[in-house]
Amino acid sequence: MCAICNFRIEFGVGHPAALTVAVATRKAIEAGLIDPVDAEQGPLAAARARMSSIDALNLLQARVEETHTPEQLLALPDFYVFLVESDTWGFFHATTDGFDPDIVPEMPDVTATDVARRSNIIVMAEAGLRAWLAGRLDAHMASGQSLFYVDAPALAGVTLTAMLLDAESPVIDER
User: Fold this and answer.
1) Share of the chain above pLDDT 70, in %
2) Fewer CB within 10 Å: C terminus or N terminus of the chain?
């Protein structure tokens, strides 16, 4: 996957949409649409939260790789995924063998006023990502309710949204 999962990168950068996604996630949890991520307490809580986020990013990587051909992967733009609960960033750069685990990306640009200069970023909560991975939430619903927020120039945004749609499992109605 990305270098972040190997603890090589610390961006120290949030994303302007993080609060919107966090509020939408809380509403979805309260409505019973998604399950909260276990919030542990204690001296190792932050490390456990980060490891959980990295696990979720690895699951996202595996899902995208298994649902896309090498040609489809190579057509994806480089992109970041920002998980709001733990401020964990993942960077995805496709190769013919999947996403490059050794890439060291630049810091994402989240503040450029020119949208074309901003980094391609998917902002989501780990709780929403895990619900999507489990098939309890579809990408259209997640985007429509601000659980997933794709911040990218027009074509890259469409491509990344299509990637999520192509990678999702059929949604299971557990009600």
Assistant:
1) 86
2) C
